Amino acid sequence: MADTITVSVLGTGIMGAAMARNLLRAGHTVRAWNRTPAKAEPLAEAGAHLAATPEEAVEGADAVLTVLHDGDAVRTTMERAAGALRPGAVWAQSTTVALDDVGALAALARRHGAHFYDAPVLGTRQPAEAGQLVVLAAGPAEGRTAVGQVFDAVGSRTVWTGDDPATGSATRLKLVANSWVLAATGAAGEALALAKGLDVDPHAFFEVIAGGPLDMGYLRAKSELVLEDRLTPASFAVGTAEKDARLIVRAGEQHGVRLDVAAACAERFRRAAAQGRGDQDMAAAYYASFDGSAAS
After folding, report:
1. Of the candidates 81, 75, 95, 88, which has an alpha carbon nearest to the alpha carbon of residue 8?
2. What angle do CA 107, 111, 115 make, to 5 degrees?
């Protein structure tokens, strides 16, 4: 395997654009495509080749990286592109999707002779931009050299969960991790909202828990975004958080697990999105505790 490869990045939103830039920094050739072309244009200045269609993006590529919104977007995009895949290409699927989607996407890759990797990532905008994502990956030994070059460029480490991507073992782990992230975000927002409602200085709350087991850097980071009105640009958007919360609830239901907190988080994110905050950082779910201008 050559030291550098050609990687097609399909989806250049918050995560995809950052991952594409790190692939370029690693010396790889990057072909980028996005449904909204304007979102991909800044990557051209960084050296990426912009493709007009998914088919053009993947033609002849050694590796394909999908970083789209949801399973439907991945499926429809790759159904268009699959015919142009070269035999033996690797496909790293990093979109957070439903468990049902993973097996179907693995079958699509198999039909077209590609090596499929279930490869969601842990991290938001900042670690993505720094190439410090944690890659959760499942896939065959054959092809790992090529896909490993992709993972090394975008992440600080790769956690392998198995050889058969169709089981969705990496996505299962991602959903568990995200259930904690979303619950912590919701709890932070509600604590701030209650402080607001009870006329309590939130910094008094932080002082009370300082240095103890209830203190969390994540709590403070998300709280600062709300208190300092720094909700854009989003590290992880409200709309995406709602989608992931609903995937978590659905996965629980499919396996006999009732997830009340995840369901409540999904509803809070929905209300925040309805307030026009869908593209803001998920910390904006704080505003779901209030009606109209009550949070100001």
Report:
1. 81
2. 75
∠ at Cα 33 (236, 110), nearest 5°? 95
Token pair for residue 167? 């089981």
Final residue in a domain of this structure, among 167, 189, 218: 167
| Token pair 């998300």: residue | 222
Backbone angles phi, psi at 63, to 5 degrees: -140, 145
Residue 89 has pLDDT above 50, yes or no: yes
Helix, strand and coil in the chain, % to nearest 5: 55, 15, 30
Please tell me the total count of domains within the chain: 2
**Domain identity same for 137 and 220:** no
Does residue 186 fall inside a structural domain?
A: yes
The answer on pLDDT for 150 being more than 80 is yes
- Tens-place pLDDT, residues 186-208: 999 999 999 999 999 999 999 99
Q: Which residues are CB-contacts of 176 (< 8 A; sequence separation ≥ 6)? A: none
